[in-house]
Amino acid sequence: xxxxxxxxxxxxxxxxxxxxxxxxxxxxxxxxxxxxxxxxxxxxxxxxxxxxxxxxxxxxxxxxxxxxxxxxxxxxxxxxxxxxxxxxxxxxxxxxxxxxxxxxxxxxxxxxxxxxxxxxxxxxxxxxxxxxxxxxxxxxxxxxxxxxxxxxxxxxxxxxxxxxxxxxxxxxxxxxxxxxxx
Amino acid sequence: xxxxxxxxxxxxxxxxxxxxxxxxxxxxxxxxxxxxxxxxxxxxxxxxxxxxxxxxxxxxxxxxxxxxxxxxxxxxxxxxxxxxxxxxxxxxxxxxxxxxxxxxxxxxxxxxxxxxxxxxxxxxxxxxxxxxxxxxxxxxxxxxxxxxxxxxxxxxxxxxxxxxxxxxxxxxxxxxxxxxxxxxxxxxxxxxxxxxxxxxxxxxxxxxxxxxxxxxxxxxxxxxxxxxxxxxxxxxxxxxxxxxxxxxxxxxxxxxxxxxxxxxxxxxxxxxxxxxxxxxxxxxxxxxxxxxxxxxxxxxxxxxxxxxxxxxxxxxxxxxxxxxxxxxxxxxxxxxxxxxxxxxxxxxxxxxxxxxxxxxxxxxxxxxxxxxxxxxxxxxxxxxxxxxxxxxxxxxxxxxxxxxxxxxxxxxxxxxxxxxxxxxxxxxxxxxxxxxxxxxxxxxxxxxxxxxxxxxxxxxxxxxxxxxxxxxxxxxxxxxxxxxxxxxxxxxxxxxxxxxxxxxxxxxxxxxxxxxxxxxxxxxxxxxxxxxxxxxxxxxxxxxxxxxxxxxxxxxxxxxxxxxxx
Lengths: 182, 566
Hints:
heterodimer; A: mainly alpha; two-stranded antiparallel ribbon; 7 helices; about 5% strand; globular; B: alpha/beta; FAD/NAD(P)-binding domain; 7-stranded mixed β-sheet; 7-stranded antiparallel β-sheet; 13 helices; 18 strands; about 25% helix; about 20% strand
């Protein structure tokens, strides 16, 4: 799917009860998660899985001064990857991982992760990431998942431009480029 | 009347050279390629940007397992969705390992063969390499010495284009070089410290078959300067690295003397007992199964080490009941490769103010020193290291973090340097490391499957253990921190894609297949110049040696042809 055909919904972060309110009792009624919409319909993910993927990808690689995972099209790329590349075994494992991730995030957020505020979601994933990297052996699937999302991101045209390392244009070799030169 | 003056079986690294030299000498040459035709302008996909490569350029897992079970695991460096066309489908091209063997046969059947996917490292063998067998008694003595082949190395380097720097190392002789890719500051530091601590060791530029200053001849062939993308295994639209497809085959074709046919699997070579010459090759079309016979006055086998060996074994006659040119019983024996599986890497916390630009297609090299300048080693022969350095870049999932912190880590951000050394060791010629015909199993064209025997042994393991230890020492003297050096994990025979030795050259017809001109002892007009002629493996990547011997043999054959002796 090309970037210009992709329907991109800009995030609408709903602020409720003050920006610092992170407890579950102050969550908004409805959270709109930025979504990389798949025009022809999902081929692998269920709707709930896709929402989780979108939310995670958006927080891991947010839209800042450079393109974020959603606008780069990471979730829809992942849907195609799982549909076209992954074997049944890989699909099963990935699906099981998403289920476990959902449970873990729900446990940390103390409610449905997809329904917590953006700030709460960010803190939840941050906490989970800390936990995972404290014991990486126990979270190898999570680390692999992050790696895959980052790889997909850097492989998309917008992501490649933002990260500057997946594409090797014709050029030359210089082993002494000043660090700050770009 | 023969159809051609010469037939060259195979269009890869050595076949291209045989075709070029014979055609340029005025012989009418037929090149027979068993695989499909590759046309760079049509088939190369190296200019496809990452976002247009399906599925992260990964071959679907089910397809990889079904059709490329061996190639996909053994050639990970070059196997992807846009390059799978360069590797055989294992499902179409099976082979067998005998009990206890674990040979890995990695190959591609198409124009130029593996000269499209090779790693381009181009070293000369040294004088010591041609004397090694005679000195320690393994294998047989080479029938040539370095001085015999040195002019042909020069000939090959000038035409192919090899980057490098003259170093004056006796056991890794200098050649004709185009400017090297400059070392990184970390590599210069490593060189200084290693050479200080170990006065007979060297850290040198990679010598690789790339054009950094193309000659007029190279430009005339449509070749251009290396664009430093390091995507060479995908083919190069700039034709900046050496491949048969970029250099020797076009050179052969421009003479008007060379014809190339594709899709023709050579299943046998005919021998005429009366004239004691080979006279024809018999082929099967890989798509239609049509059988066709081609005749010639001279036949060069360049079908790759195992491929040529299988053709010899399939070409039985009353005169050669165990296979063509096999009176010595050496056809198929002494199967060698190189051995890897020992490495060390570490962090050099310096040169924070610089980073690199471009993707250099080669690195650094530590030439062999064991048993050349340092002795009393617990093994025979030696090893070299292919090395590199790169700014450590915190990419992807390497470190924790989310949001902006994670994005920052995915930028091209230099931090300390990572330096690594990977050993490539010599493998001895063991007579029972061999390939034979499987007694019952056949491929879809009715030809016997190759069956491999043997594997890595005590000396190769000892080499790796030493190589690991010495790599750690060199990184330590350079001041590397956080050195990682896993226990050795020997590569399988064949995994380095340097299989060789199964029709070795030697002085004695009773113990070798070829003489010092790559000519069959038993048959004057049969030449074999792919890796099967190698009498020992040395530790260096072998392709430049195949090129040099191929050019030499072709010119020798052309001399005999002109003299009316063939």
